[in-house]
């Protein structure tokens, strides 16, 4: 009989433990899962030219908010180059997803590669060919010759939850078939700065440079994510890793295999995340949805009746909580199909059917002055210095000659406008306050509106910035 000894006020007390506790604990852990999935995990080495050397997000000078790390701690997409590698050599992991040799990995593992070598779990080395790449999600597909190769099954990443146990498998620092365990720490991570389309699974399973492109699997051994990056001060694992969800990856991979490229759906709206201030200004009881800042002319959104200021709360029946969700949902929608979009407009819900179009290829890249302080304004606009737009300014900003509004020349540091993100170069095109909307086409409109705003009034500015539009709330 096993005896548990406790100390209470210095006196030993002996208590029997139930027979259930006497049974030996299982020691096999996750070995059955590892044996089932490891054969489908491969090691990829590639050789290429200098172009495309660093994959997306490698510039350490860019800040990586909202994570509370200093600017010298950027996310590390993989692979990391050990000292004995030349800059043209890269390595990472991959996953066999069909018995016929199709492999999913990260774009930055094979970007610009002129030669790809795939090492299987049984140590065989095969020459790989790149089927297609998608830098916007940092995914790629490689194929090797073979039949009846071990492969892994996709799982539904929409069913995973924070706290679920997961395993990461790959080749960190070239150490092939390495397995680590952790949990799902968070879901829906965006604005990380790794790829254009981001909706990452965050995990504390130890992943390191070389795990890139390897699988994140659940306790059924199903593929729920593609390990892509870590957030690190040193380049090594510190418990913050990111994986592309399987439902996003599967859509991209299928398109790459079938056509060699990715066709994305498009609504034609500029959107922004809700903030507590915006939720209050729009009369929402809770902060949810994605706010439409701009509806592009001739777009599916305009044709369907979506409007600037609408708040998207559902897409195809699924709740929308942030910008990443709606962008990814729209991108994965089948072109030409009608999708129900539920919005809040003037406090009421409306469901509007939008016919999804193909995302345009070029969409990604996008005299009189007035100083509120000198004019003795006594409201939140006192912190701005603005002026009329002229043809020279419009040409310098690469904007159409018919663009209207006033240009922000300066923002007072540490003011409400500064804290809410107003920037030099913003173009103010509308002011909302006290239930009214005032279009701003020039300095006259701005001055008239500015004189109507009270000292304690909260306002919302519609701002054009770098070809897009967004709402910025300002309150005293």
Low-confidence stretches: 1-21, 50-87
Report the total helices: 9
The proportion of strand residues reads 35-45%
Query: How many β-strand runs?
Result: 30
Name of the CATH first level of the largest domain: Mainly Beta
Task: Name its key features.
single chain, 476 residues, mainly beta, Thrombin, subunit H, Pdz3 Domain, 7-stranded antiparallel sheet, 6-stranded antiparallel β-barrel, 9 helices, 30 strands, 36% strand, disordered N terminus
Can I get a quick summary?
The chain has 476 residues and is mostly beta strands. It has three domains: 32-262, Beta Barrel (Thrombin, subunit H); 265-358, PDZ domain (Pdz3 Domain); 369-474, Pdz3 Domain.
Describe the secondary-structure layout:
Elements: E1 3-8, E2 11-16, H1 31-37, E3 41-48, E4 75-77, E5 89-96, E6 102-105, H2 107-110, E7 113-119, E8 125-134, E9 139-143, E10 165-170, E11 178-189, E12 200-203, E13 215-217, E14 223-231, E15 241-245, H3 246-259, E16 265-266, E17 269-273, H4 276-281, E18 290-295, H5 300-304, E19 311-315, E20 318-319, H6 323-332, E21 338-345, E22 348-355, E23 357-358, E24 369-371, E25 384-388, H7 391-396, E26 406-411, H8 416-419, E27 427-433, E28 436-439, H9 443-452, E29 459-465, E30 468-474
